[in-house]
Amino acid sequence: MFDTERDNETRKTNRRNLWLAALAGQVGFLTLIIILAAVVGGLALDARLGTRPWFTIGLLLASIPVSLLLMVYITRKTVAKIKANHNDHLNEEGRLGK
Questions:
Q1: Where are the alpha helices (DSSP H) in the chain?
Q2: What is the pLDDT of residue 33?
Q3: CA end-to-end span of the chain
Q4: Nearest to 61 by CA among 35, 23, 84, 98
Q5: How far is the C-alpha of 94 from the C-alpha of 98, rounded, in Å?
């Protein structure tokens, strides 16, 4: 009986860690994509308009709040999924005892 409880706790911890790793991966990848798009777009606009560093700097500075807002959005969405998954699991355990 003790081993099954420990296995359940280990599974819960592993599942939570996987959710957190997925969250970190999503946020990191999205931030990278936003920054690369800002640099490429800024360099393209600067080359076309002859304003060498200004559009690149401006788009990089504009990408900071965009990246932060998307991080908050993705984090809140993922945490809601974790909580819903945890609550479903608790409800399932309650039904098994009855």
A1: 2-49, 54-96
A2: 97
A3: 18
A4: 35
A5: 7
Tokens for 89?
Answer: 């699991």
pLDDT band at residue 8 under the 50/70/90 scheme: confident
Residue 87: what pLDDT? Answer: 75
CA angle 70, 76, 77 (to 5 degrees): 90
Rounded Cα gap, residues 5 and 46, in angstroms: 61
Residue 26 has a CB neighbour count (10 Å cut-off) of 16
**Tokens 């990278």 correspond to what residue?**
32
Residue with tokens 């997925």: 22
Q: Is residue 97 classed as helix, strand or coil in its secondary structure?
A: coil
Q: For residue 51, report the phi and psi dihedrals to the nearest 5 degrees.
A: -115, 50
